[in-house]
Amino acid sequence: MEPLLEIKNLACGYQAQPVFTHVNLKLYPKQLSGLVGPSGCGKTTLIKTILGLAHPWVGEIWFRGQKLQPGVSPPKVGYVPQVETVDWSFPVTAEEVVMMGRYRRRNVSPFPSKRDRQVARELLYRVGVEDVAHQPIGELSGGQQQRVFIARALVGEPDIVLLDEPTSSSDLRVQHELLHLLAELNQQGLTILLSTHDLNSVATHLPWVICFNHGIIAQGEPTEVFTPQTLKQTFGGEMVVIREGDRILIASSLSTLRHRMQDNLPSILRQTH
Amino acid sequence: MDLLLRPFQYEFFSRALLVAMLAGLLCGVMGVYITTRRMSYIAHGLSHAILGGAVLSYVLQLNFYIGAGIWGFISALVIQFLTGRKIYADAAIGIVTTASFALGIAIISTYRQFTKSFEAALFGNVLGVTPNDVWVVTCVTIALLALVFIFYRPLLFWSFDRDVAKVHGVPVLAMDVLFALMLAAMLVTTLQILGVTLIISAIIIPASIARLLSDRFGMMMIYAAVLGAGISFVGIYLSYYFDVASGASVVLLSTIVFGIVLLWTNLKQRRKRRTLDSHLL
Lengths: 273, 281
Fold this sequence. Notes:
Structural class of chain A: alpha/beta
Largest interface: A-B, 31 and 28 residues
Distance between the termini of chain A: 47 Å
Strand order of the largest sheet of chain A: 6-7-8-3-9-10
Order of helices and strands of chain B: HHHHHHHHHHHHH
Number of strands of chain B: 0
Distance between the termini of chain B: 55 Å
Low-confidence stretches of chain B: none
Oligomer: heterodimer
């Protein structure tokens, strides 16, 4: 199968400082992948380079078999930025935010059309926040804001959506809901790449993970990739990996793991107790 | 009735009212972009920078609007250029605008004959506008409002989130240049009316009042335009009776309106909260 997105020997940095080097990556249609690594390891820069927001030093990015010019965004891509970069006091409603994503599909009118509004409503319904369409974006909860941004990323009917730390400032329930939504969208045929530094609640739920720290350390299914050696290379510290069937639990120490699991200890951990 | 209509018997006063309303409307609309993009300081700085261009165009015998406009546009671009190169935005604004303002003062101190024009540039002279100024302000206002109308969607997206706008196909570099041009054009045309020191109030106060009244960008623009034009009209009209400087009258009135709206919106919010509490109990 031909990859949807292919990165060949990519390197990027700021001033004279490289952020990542020698990145080779293929993302196939309908793939749901997680870019996993610690804060400051270059995940955001890699996403921005793919999106044409940062200029690569060397390397190539291919999208649907076509080479992209440096600094040019792929034609059918959706992007959900980190929540910390968004000005939540900006005077726009959830519906207006989603309609922004229809820019490539605008008609001659300088204002959004009836069709734009209808599509925005449909998308808000699809991600489960149609009831907040007329509310200012700053008055929504963190989970609702993320859903509105996912709706904006989807409204242009993209082939792939890139999400930068979508769960970073959410509680466990919201994280679970967002991951469920992304899995659902992926099942409907959407290719998704999301970055995260959260191993247990996010990365272990993804079918494909890419361990990243200034370059790709390893990639594959979580059960294969999350080994103490790979995690040490990625996060720079010793980690405990516990496996029980398909489940993986990762922590910096056994005591942390026990604390996290509380009453729900897997049998393997009970034996070490 | 005669007393109320008395100011209109002077042609210069009617002209001042018209031109101030147009300037207020334009500053109000542009102010929505400037305040929501947290650019108040750049607008304030550029108005000072333009003084350098105005003085230089006088010395070089260039048309004021063209000379000062080009100067303001280049200053805005230099600020943007510096901001991307390890220099903080406020520092870049400080460097470019004070250097330009200092150049204006240096030239003025060498050519001492235009002290009066310097005062007009600093504090505004709406009552001294010529019919030619009225034409320029009218044409620039129409042109800028047309640009705001035509580019409403890309400018809104660019203002809210520049990076995501680029990913969705908005030509963000073109928007940077377009907005720098619009900003320079607005400041140059309104500089002689409100003056370097007072112009910022016409930009930020109506937009800030509009923000208190609405959570929607488009509605904010309508409110700010109406408030900008209305406050300018009433402010200048009242300055005739109170015999105070027209620019100062407009600024003071807009501050009073801001205070009233702030109080009203706070009371409204408190009442809403109280009603909600009583429903919950």
